[in-house]
C-alpha cells in the first residue's frame, strides 16, 4: 500500500495515497480542477493546459533537511514562478495548492479562450451539448464575446466517417488526444492518430476497415467535446431529453454494467425508444468501458421482426392466438406428458426465468437441461473467484492463465483487464491451439495440439513456469471453448481446478477459475440447477413435450433439427420466429431485457441487476411469467407478478444466493477513480452508477466433491484425406441478436473455413474456393480461407456464422462438383 | 508479399540494426526516406508495407508522414525546389528572389511546372542564412543545397536537372 | 597549428579527411581518455572546464552528465545536430568541414557516461552531411577507432546517424528523442528528465554539436587551459552566427564575452549601404528584439551579460542584425509565421496562440489591421507566456512583446494607414 500524504487544496486538508495526482486529490474533497486532456484512466500528458494551478511546497533547509518555519510557526511555503499542471503533478507532503486565485482563474480563462478560437461553438446542434466539458467550462470561465475574427477560424469538415461506427467533426476536435491515447494505451489498437501538426493537427485513420477496433465506441464517451459520435446515436437526441435506466450487457459472461438512454419519440408513434447504450462505472467488472458489440448490438430489441402474439399450430401452419388459449393448451400438454416433459433453457434467460422454468419442470417430474456447449459449472462453483476478488487488483505477484479462449473476441473486456493486469506486472500464460492477441502480452505462450489442452494445463506444474506459478500470490485461470466441444471443456475445467488446488491457490482471494461462457447468464443456468446433459439429441427426439426457452437448437445442429421433427409436442418461448419456433406447436412471445427487470450472474459469479428501460409492449410477457402462468394452470404457486418476488424465492432455496435481495443488489459505494460523479468530473458522458454494483457469490463447499478425472486426450485423428474441424468463437457472429444491428453488418463473421496453406495444398484446396462441409449428415457451403495461424491438418470454423457445428469433428470437404453435396440447406 | 521488403531487404536490415533489438519502430523515418527515394513520394501501398515490416499500424506510419514536412504522400514535381524565405534570408532579398524565380517559371509557389519537373516551395530556415538567397532541391532520393543564388543561376540549374532527368529516363528505357 | 579551436579547418585544409585530421593531433584525446583516464576523470575534467551547452540553454555540460544514474543501463548519448533556429548555421560548418573533431567529442561524451551507442540526430535537410558522416563513421570502424573493445580496453562504442524530416521542434531535446523512437516530434512531459528517462526510456545525455566539438581540446589541453578563454562564468570560445543586415554575414569563432559591437563592426564589416543599425536579435527568431543602442552594442556576449544587461538570452548566439529599413511589425510577422508553422500542436496555448497571432501579424503587416489589433496581439502573446508545455511556445512570443514594447511606432505606422 502506498503511503498516505497530506496536503491542502484551497484551504482544505486532504489525505491521499502517494502517487495521486493533484487533480484527483482535489476530487476527493469535491474540488473540481477543470481538465480536458486528463483522464483518470489514461497516462497524464499535460497538454491542454486547462488545469494550471499555483503549487507551493514547503521550504526545506538543505543543511539540516528540516522544514523552515515562518515567524507564526507555520511551515514556510515556496511557490514556483509558473503555474503548474494539476493533472501531471503528484501530491507531496505539505504541498499547498491554490486553484481559486485570480491568477489561476485568469489562466483558465486564457486557455479556454485559446481553445474556443477555432471551435465552431455549435452547441445548439451538437450531440454532446448538455454533457460537454467544454461547454460547461465556457459557462464558467468563458467570456461573452470573441476577440477572434470569425472569418479567421479554421473551417473544417464536420462529417468525417472514421469507419462505419464513428464519425468525426474536425471543427469540434480540441486535439486533447484522449481518443488516440485510449486506442494506444488501453486497447492496443492504434488505428487512429494525428496527422499534420500545429493548428492543422487532425485525427485520421488509415486502417481497413476504418477505425478498426472493437472498442471504438468508448472514444465517443471520453471525447470531451462533440467531435466523436457514434453512427448509432449521432443526431439521435439531446442528452437532456433522455431518461436512463441501469442495465447490463447480455452478450458475454463479463456482464458489463450499462446505462440505457431512452426518449419518447414521434417517429415511433409516441413510444419510448432506446437512443444509446453506454458503459456504467463498475470498477470490478468493466471499469468504464464496453465493447462495440455491447454498445451497438441491441437493436434486436427494437426489431420489427419481434414476435408480438402467441402462436398455435393448426395443421401445418402457425396461427395467432390468445394468451389464454395458448397457456391452457400448453399446460394441458405438459400435464399429459408428466415426466415426458423436457425443458431446454439457455444462458440468455435471467435467473428468475430459469428458476421458474426449473420449478415447472421438476414438479412434473420432467428433465431440466441447461442448453450450453460448455461444461464445468459445478467446478466453477467450487473453484471460482472468492467474493472480494477483483481483476483490478491483479498485478505484480499474480499469474494469469488463459486456456482455449481468444478473450479479445469472446469476452473483450476481460482481455482488456488482463492486459491492464499484465501492465501492472502480472505474468500471463497463454495456452491455445492457435495464436491470439493474448500472445503479444503473454510471458509464456504454449501452443498445443487441438484436443490436448487439458494435458497442457496438467503439465504446467512440471514445466518451466512451475516455480513462478507456485510462488505467485494470486493465480487466476480462464478457460474457454476455443475449438472444444462440451465434454472437452468439462475436462479442461477439471484440469484447471487441479492446477489451482495443487499450486495451493484454490479458494484464495484474487485467485480461481473464470469460465468464458458463451452466454451472458450461463453461470445462472448452473446456479439455478440447469446442467447440460448427454444424449441431448435422443432426449429431444423422445420428449413428449419439449419446452425450449431462449434457445434455437434447430439452427444450431442438424442432428437436433432432425430430432425436433420427432418431438411429440414443442413449446417455444422466444423473441423471434426462430427455426425452432417455426417447428413449434405453441410459441410464446417474450419480453426483451430492455423491457423488464431481472438478474444475471456473470462468469466471475457476480449477481447483477438490470432495470426496465422502456415500457413493456402490450401482449408480451417475461419468460418467468410465462412459466409461472403455465404452472398456475397446473396448480403450482410460482411467482408471476414481479421478478423481485421470484428472486426472493430462489434466494431462499439456492444456498449461494441466500440472503440476497433486490435492494442489496442495487447498493453502490464510492468508486475510485472518480469518473461517475458529474459534479467533479469532466470526462464528458456520465458514467454514474447509482443502481447497483452487484454482489459476488460465495463458493460452494468442497466436501463430498471430487474433481472429475477422465481421458484427457481429446484429439481427433483424421485420415489423410480428412480435416479435423474445430469451431471457434467470433465476437460478431451471425446470431439473431447481432444481425439485427445493421451497423455491424459489414464486420460479421462469414461461413469461412480457415486452413493452413500447407493443408490446402495437400487437399487440393485453394483460397476463396467454395466447398461443401459435411456436418452431422448435412452439408454446408463454405469458403476456404488460407491462414498460416491454423494448425496443419486442422480447419477452424466460426460458430454461429451459417454452419451449425457444436462439436469438433472429422470431415471430408469436397470441391462442389457432382453430387458430393448430400444435402444442401437453403 | 511485402514487395518493399523484398526489394530492399539488405538496406532495411541495416537500418534496423542501428536500433535496440526488438524495437523496430525507430526505423520508421529511415524507411520512409527509403520509400521516398524509390518513388519520389510515399505511396499508400508502401506505407502499408512499412507498417507491416515494423509491426505498427498504417495509421501510425501515416501520422509520421503527416507531421514531418520532408515526406510527401502525394506526387509532386520530380524535384522540390525549396526556397528559404525565413527572417534572415528575407532580410537579404529571399522573398524577391522567390517571386522572380516563380515569374520566370510561370508558376506560383506550391505549383509544379507543366512538365512535372519542378515544384516550387517556400520553406523555413535551412541553416544557410549567410548565403541567402538559397534553396534546397529535394528529389531522386537526395537533398542538395544551392547557396548565394541568382535567378539566372537557378534557371541554369533547372535546365541541368531537366537534362539529368531526361538522361535517366533514357538509361531506364 | 591553428588559431581556431572549433573551426580548425579554416587553417588546415582538408581537415574533413581522416588522415589529415589524425596528422593534426586527431583522436589523441579519445585515446588518452580511454587508455589513461577513468570515465569519472573525463567527466570531472569537463566539469572543471566550466563548459556550458552551446545548444541554447547554456547548461553546464559536466553537471548534465553527472545526473545519469549509475544503476540504470544502458546509457545513451545523443548529439543534437538539428540546427533549425532561424539565423543559426554554425553546426553545419563543423559537420561539413571538421566532422572528425565533432565525432571525437561525441565519443568522449559517450565514454564519460559509459554509453555504448550514440546517436546523431540531424535535421533532414542535412541529408548529404549525414551521408558523409556515415562514411566518416565507416572509416573509424575500419581504423579501429570505433567498435568493440577500443584500444584494447573493454569499452565498445557504436555511432549512428538519424535524420529528422523538417521539424524545428525536434531540436527540443525530448521531441528529438520521440522522433528517434519513431513518434511524432512532440515534447514529452518533464519530469522525468532525459538524464533518467531518455532515449528508449534509458538515461540519456543530449548535447549540441558545438558543445561536443569542444571536448577533444579540453581533454587534450585540460580544463585550466579552457578557462583561460572567455569569461569566468562563460569560459571558452563560441561560434557566433551573424546574419541579416550586415556586410559580412557568417560564422565567427570568438571568445565568449566579445561585445556585439566587435562582432558586428570589426568582424562583420558593419551595416551595408550606409544604413544604421536599428536592433539586434541575439538568439535567432526566438529572441527578444533589442534596440541597438550603445549599451546593447557594448554588452559582452556571454550567458550572464546579455541576460543581465538586455534581458535577452544568448541562446545559440545567432545574431540577427536589423537596420533602419526594417519595420518590426514586418519582422514579427515573419517570426510568428515561423512558429505557427513549427508548433507541434501538442499544447493549447502554442497551437492556438501562434495561429491567432499569425492572423493578427499578417493583417498588421499587410496594413489591414485596426489600431486595437496591436494591443490584442500583445495580449495574445502575454496570454501564452508561462503556460506552454515547452519553450517553443514561449519563444514565439518574444519578438512580439518586445517588438511592440520597443518599436510600437513601427506597428502604428502600418495600422494607421
Ligand atoms: C524549440 C527548441 C528548439 C531547439 N533547437 C535546438 C537545435 O536545433 N539544436 C540544439 O543543439 N539545441 C536546440 N535546442 C536546445 C535543446 O533542447 C537542448 O537544450 C540542447 O540540445 C542541449 O545541448 P547542450 O547542453 O549541449 O546545449 C532547442 C530547444 C528548444 C526548446
Ligand atoms: S509549446 Fe506546446 S505546441 Fe508548442 S511546440 Fe511546445 S509542446 Fe508543442
Ligand atoms: S494539461 Fe492538465 S488536464 Fe490537460
TrEMBL record, chain B:
Keywords: 2Fe-2S, Iron, Iron-sulfur, Metal-binding. This is NAD(P)H-dependent oxidoreductase subunit E. InterPro entries: NuoE-like (IPR002023), NuoE_dom (IPR042128), NuoE_N (IPR041921), Thioredoxin-like_sf (IPR036249). It holds the Pfam family 2Fe-2S_thioredx. Binds 1 [2Fe-2S] cluster. It comes from the Bacteria. GO terms for molecular function: 2 iron, 2 sulfur cluster binding; metal ion binding; NADH dehydrogenase activity. [2Fe-2S] cluster binds at residues 84, 89, 125, 129. Belongs to the complex I 24 kDa subunit family. PANTHER family: NADH DEHYDROGENASE [UBIQUINONE] FLAVOPROTEIN 2, MITOCHONDRIAL, NADH DEHYDROGENASE UBIQUINONE FLAVOPROTEIN 2, MITOCHONDRIAL. CDD domains: TRX_Fd_NuoE. Its cofactor is [2Fe-2S] cluster.
UniProtKB/TrEMBL annotation, chain C:
Pfam families: Complex1_51K (PF01512), NADH_4Fe-4S (PF10589), SLBB (PF10531). Residues 329-374 form the NADH-ubiquinone oxidoreductase 51kDa subunit iron-sulphur binding domain. It comes from the Bacteria. SMART domains: NADH_4Fe-4S (SM00928). Signal peptide: none annotated. SUPFAM superfamilies: Nqo1 FMN-binding domain-like (SSF142019), Nqo1 middle domain-like (SSF142984), Nqo1C-terminal domain-like (SSF140490). InterPro entries: NADH-UbQ_OxRdtase_51kDa_CS, Nuo51_FMN-bd, Nuo51_FMN-bd_sf, Nuop51_4Fe4S-bd, Nuop51_4Fe4S-bd_sf, Soluble_ligand-bd. Its EC number is 1.6.5.11. Keywords: 4Fe-4S, Iron, Iron-sulfur, Metal-binding, Oxidoreductase. GO terms for molecular function: 4 iron, 4 sulfur cluster binding; FMN binding; metal ion binding; NADH dehydrogenase (ubiquinone) activity; oxidoreductase activity. Belongs to the complex I 51 kDa subunit family. This is NADH dehydrogenase. It comes from Leptolinea tardivitalis. The lineage of its organism: Bacteria, Bacillati, Chloroflexota, Anaerolineae, Anaerolineales.
Amino acid at each position: 500500500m502506498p503511503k498516505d500524504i497530506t496536503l491542502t487544496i484551497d484551504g482544505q486538508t486532504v489525505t491521499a495515497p502517494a502517487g495521486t495526482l493533484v487533480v484527483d486529490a482535489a476530487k476527493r474533497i469535491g474540488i473540481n480542477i477543470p481538465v480536458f486532456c486528463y483522464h483518470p484512466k489514461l497516462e497524464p500528458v499535460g497538454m491542454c493546459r486547462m488545469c494550471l494551478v499555483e503549487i507551493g511546497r514547503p521550504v526545506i533547509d538543505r543543511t539540516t533537511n528540516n522544514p523552515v518555519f515562518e515567524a507564526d510557526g507555520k511551515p514556510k511555503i515556496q511557490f514556483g514562478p509558473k503555474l503548474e499542471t494539476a493533472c501531471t503533478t503528484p501530491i507531496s507532503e505539505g504541498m499547498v495548492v491554490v486553484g481559486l486565485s485570480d491568477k489561476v482563474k485568469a489562466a483558465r480563462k486564457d486557455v479556454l479562450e485559446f481553445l474556443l478560437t477555432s471551435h465552431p461553438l455549435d452547441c445548439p446542434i451538437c450531440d454532446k451539448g448538455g454533457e460537454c466539458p467544454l461547454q460547461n467550462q465556457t459557462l464558467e470561465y468563458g467570456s461573452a464575446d470573441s476577440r477572434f475574427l470569425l472569418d479567421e477560424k479554421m473551417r473544417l469538415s464536420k462529417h468525417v466517417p472514421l469507419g462505419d461506427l464513428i464519425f468525426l467533426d474536425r471543427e469540434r476536435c480540441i486535439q486533447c488526444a484522449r481518443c488516440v491515447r485510449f486506442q494506444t494505451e488501453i486497447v492496443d489498437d492504434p488505428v487512429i492518430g494525428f496527422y499534420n501538426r500545429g493548428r492543422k493537427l487532425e485525427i485520421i485513420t488509415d486502417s481497413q476497415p476504418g477505425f478498426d477496433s472493437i472498442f471504438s465506441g468508448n472514444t465517443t464517451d471520453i471525447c470531451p467535446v462533440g467531435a466523436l459520435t457514434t453512427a448509432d446515436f449521432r443526431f439521435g437526441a439531446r442528452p437532456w431529453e433522455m431518461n436512463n435506466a441501469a442495465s447490463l450487457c447480455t452478450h458475454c459472461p463479463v456482464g458489463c454494467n450499462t446505462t440505457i438512454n431512452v426518449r419518447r419519440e414521434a417517429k415511433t408513434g409516441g413510444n419510448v425508444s432506446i437512443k444509446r447504450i453506454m458503459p456504467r462505472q463498475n470498477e470490478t467488472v468493466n471499469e468504464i468501458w464496453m465493447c462495440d458489440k455491447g454498445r451497438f448490438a441491441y437493436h434486436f430489441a427494437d426489431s420489427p421482426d419481434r414476435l408480438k402474439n402467441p402462436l398455435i399450430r393448426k395443421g401445418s401452419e402457425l396461427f395467432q392466438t390468445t394468451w389464454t388459449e395458448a397457456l391452457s393448451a400448453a399446460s394441458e400438454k405438459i400435464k399429459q406428458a408428466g415426466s415426458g416433459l423436457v425443458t431446454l433453457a439457455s444462458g440468455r434467460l435471467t435467473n428468475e426465468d430459469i428458476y421458474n422454468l426449473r420449478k415447472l419442470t421438476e414438479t412434473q417430474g420432467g428433465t431440466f437441461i441447461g442448453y450450453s456447449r460448455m461444461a464445468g459449472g459445478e467446478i466453477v462453483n467450487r473453484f471460482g473467484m472468492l467474493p472480494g476478488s477483483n481483476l483490478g487488483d491483479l498485478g505484480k505477484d499474480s499469474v494469469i492463465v488463459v486456456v482455449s479462449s481468444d478473450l479479445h473476441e469472446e469476452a473483450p473486456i476481460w482481455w482488456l483487464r488482463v492486459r491492464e493486469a499484465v501492465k501492472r506486472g502480472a505474468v500471463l500464460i497463454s495456452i491455445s491451439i492457435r495464436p491470439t492477441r493474448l500472445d503479444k502480452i503473454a510471458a509464456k505462450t504454449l501452443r498445443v495440439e487441438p484436443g490436448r489442452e487439458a494435458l497442457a494445463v496438467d503439465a504446467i506444474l512440471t514445466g518451466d513456469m512451475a516455480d513462478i506459478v507456485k510462488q505467485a500470490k494470486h493465480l487466476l485461470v480462464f478457460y474457454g471453448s476455443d475449438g472444444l466441444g462440451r465434454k472437452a471443456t468439462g475436462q479442461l475445467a477439471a484440469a484447471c481446478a487441479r492446477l489451482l488446488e495443487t499450486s495451493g491457490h484454490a479458494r484464495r482471494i484474487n485467485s480461481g477459475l473464470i469460465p468464458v461462457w458463451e452466454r451472458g447468464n450461463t453461470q445462472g443456468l448452473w446456479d439455478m440447477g440447469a446442467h447440460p446433459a448427454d444424449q441431448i439429441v435422443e432426449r429431444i427426439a423422445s420428449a413428449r413435450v419439449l419446452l425450449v426457452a431462449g434457445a434455437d437448437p434447430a439452427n444450431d445442429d442438424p442432428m437436433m433439427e432432425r430430432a425436433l421433427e420427432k418431438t411429440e409436442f414443442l413449446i417455444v418461448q422466444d423473441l423471434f420466429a426462430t427455426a425452432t419456433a417455426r417447428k413449434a406447436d405453441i410459441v410464446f412471445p417474450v419480453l426483451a431485457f430492455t423491457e423488464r427487470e431481472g438478474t444475471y450472474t456473470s462468469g466471475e459469479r457476480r449477481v447483477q441487476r438490470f432495470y426496465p428501460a422502456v415500457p413493456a409492449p402490450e401482449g408480451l410477457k417475461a419468460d418467468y411469467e410465462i412459466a409461472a402462468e403455465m404452472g398456475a394452470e397446473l396448480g403450482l404457486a410460482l411467482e408471476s407478478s414481479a421478478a423481485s418476488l421470484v428472486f426472493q424465492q430462489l434466494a431462499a432455496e439456492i444456498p449461494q444466493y441466500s440472503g440476497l435481495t433486490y435492494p442489496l443488489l442495487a447498493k453502490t459505494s464510492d468508486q475510485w477513480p472518480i469518473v461517475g460523479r458529474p459534479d467533479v468530473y469532466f470526462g464528458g458522458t456520465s458514467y454514474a452508477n447509482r443502481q447497483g454494483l452487484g454482489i459476488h457469490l460465495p463458493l460452494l463447499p468442497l466436501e463430498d466433491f471430487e474433481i472429475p478425472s477422465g481421458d484427457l486426450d481429446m484429439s481427433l485423428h483424421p485420415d489423410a484425406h480428412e480435416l479435423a474441424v474445430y469451431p471457434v468463437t467470433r465476437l460478431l457472429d451471425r446470431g439473431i441478436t447481432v444481425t439485427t444491428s445493421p451497423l455491424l453488418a459489414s464486420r460479421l463473421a462469414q461461413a469461412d473455413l480457415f486452413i493452413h496453406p500447407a493443408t490446402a495444398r495437400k487437399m487440393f484446396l485453394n483460397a476463396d474456393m467454395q466447398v461443401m462441409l459435411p456436418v452431422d449428415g448435412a452439408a454446408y457451403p463454405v469458403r476456404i480461407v488460407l491462414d498460416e495461424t491454423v494448425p496443419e491438418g486442422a480447419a477452424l470454423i466460426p460458430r454461429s456464422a451459417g454452419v451449425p457445428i457444436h462439436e469438433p469433428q472429422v470431415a471430408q470437404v469436397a470441391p462442389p462438383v457432382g453430387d458430393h453435396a448430400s444435402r444442401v440447406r437453403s | 508479399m511485402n514487395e518493399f521488403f523484398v526489394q530492399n531487404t539488405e538496406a532495411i536490415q541495416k537500418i534496423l540494426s542501428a536500433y535496440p533489438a526488438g524495437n523496430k519502430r525507430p526505423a520508421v523515418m529511415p524507411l520512409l526516406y527509403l520509400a521516398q527515394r524509390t518513388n519520389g513520394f510515399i505511396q499508400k501501398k508502401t506505407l502499408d508495407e512499412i507498417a507491416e515490416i515494423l509491426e505498427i499500424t498504417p495509421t501510425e506510419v501515416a501520422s509520421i508522414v503527416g507531421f514531418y514536412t520532408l515526406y510527401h504522400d502525394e506526387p509532386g514535381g520530380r524535384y522540390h525546389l525549396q526556397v528559404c524565405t525565413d527572417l534572415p534570408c528575407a532580410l537579404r532579398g529571399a522573398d524577391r528572389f522567390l517571386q522572380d524565380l516563380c515569374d520566370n517559371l510561370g508558376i506560383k509557389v506550391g505549383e509544379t511546372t507543366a512538365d512535372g519537373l519542378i515544384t516550387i516551395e517556400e520553406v523555413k530556415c535551412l541553416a544557410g542564412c549567410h548565403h541567402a538567397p538559397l534553396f534546397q532541391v529535394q528529389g531522386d532520393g537526395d537533398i542538395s543545397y544551392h547557396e548565394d543564388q541568382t535567378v539566372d543561376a537557378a534557371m541554369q540549374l533547372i535546365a541541368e536537372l531537366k537534362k539529368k532527368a531526361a538522361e535517366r529516363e533514357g538509361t531506364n528505357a | 597549428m591553428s588559431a581556431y579551436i572549433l573551426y580548425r579547418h579554416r587553417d588546415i585544409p582538408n581537415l574533413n579527411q581522416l588522415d589529415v585530421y589524425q596528422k593534426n593531433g586527431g583522436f589523441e584525446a579519445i585515446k588518452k581518455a580511454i587508455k589513461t583516464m577513468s570515465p569519472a576523470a573525463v567527466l570531472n575534467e569537463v566539469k572543471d572546464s566550466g563548459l556550458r551547452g552551446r545548444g541554447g540553454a547554456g547548461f553546464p555540460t559536466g553537471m548534465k552528465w553527472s545526473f545519469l544514474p549509475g544503476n540504470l543501463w544502458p546509457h545513451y548519448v545523443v548529439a543534437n545536430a538539428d540546427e533549425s533556429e532561424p539565423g543559426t548555421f554554425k553546426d553545419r560548418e563543423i559537420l561539413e568541414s571538421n566532422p572528425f573533431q565533432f565525432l571525437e567529442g561525441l565519443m568522449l561524451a559517450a565514454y564519460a557516461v559509459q554509453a555504448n551507442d550514440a546517436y546523431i540526430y540531424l535535421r533532414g535537410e542535412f541529408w548529404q552531411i549525414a551521408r558523409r558522416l556515415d562514411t566518416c563513421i565507416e572509416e573509424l570502424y575500419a581504423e579501429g577507432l570505433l567498435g568493440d573493445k577500443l584500444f584494447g580496453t573493454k569499452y565498445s562504442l557504436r555511432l549512428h546517424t538519424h535524420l529528422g524530416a523538417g521539424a524545428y521542434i525536434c531540436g527540443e531535446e525530448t521531441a528529438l528523442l520521440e522522433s528517434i523512437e519513431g513518434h511524432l516530434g512532440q515534447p514529452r512531459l518533464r519530469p522525468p528528465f532525459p538524464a533518467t528517462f531518455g532515449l528508449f526510456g534509458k538515461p540519456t545525455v543530449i548535447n549540441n554539436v558545438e558543445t561536443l566539438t569542444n571536448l577533444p581540446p579540453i581533454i587534450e589541453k585540460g580544463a585550466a587551459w579552457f578557462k583561460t578563454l572567455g569569461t569566468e562564468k562563460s569560459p571558452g570560445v563560441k561560434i557566433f552566427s551573424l546574419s541579416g543586415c550586415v556586410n559580412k554575414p557568417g560564422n565567427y569563432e570568438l571568445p565568449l564575452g566579445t561585445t556585439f559591437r566587435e562582432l558586428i563592426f570589426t568582424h562583420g564589416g558593419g551595416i551595408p549601404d550606409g544604413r544604421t543599425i536599428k536592433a539586434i536579435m541575439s538568439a535567432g527568431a526566438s529572441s527578444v528584439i533589442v534596440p541597438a543602442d550603445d549599451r546593447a552594442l557594448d554588452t559582452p556576449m556571454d550567458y550572464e551579460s546579455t541576460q543581465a544587461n538586455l534581458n535577452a538570452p544568448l541562446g545559440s548566439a545567432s545574431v540577427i542584425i536589423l537596420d533602419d529599413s526594417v519595420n518590426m511589425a514586418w519582422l514579427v510577422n515573419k517570426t510568428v509565421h515561423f512558429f505557427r508553422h513549427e508548433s507541434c500542436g501538442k499544447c493549447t496555448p502554442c497551437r492556438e496562440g501562434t495561429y491567432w497571432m499569425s492572423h493578427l501579424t499578417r493583417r498588421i503587416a499587410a496594413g489591414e489591421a485596426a489600431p486595437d489589433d496591436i494591443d490584442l496581439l500583445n495580449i495574445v502573446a502575454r496570454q501564452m507566456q508561462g503556460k506552454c508545455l515547452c519553450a517553443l511556445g514561449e519563444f514565439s512570443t518574444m519578438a512580439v512583446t518586445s517588438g511592440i514594447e520597443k518599436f510600437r511606432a513601427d506597428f502604428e505606422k502600418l495600422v494607421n494607414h
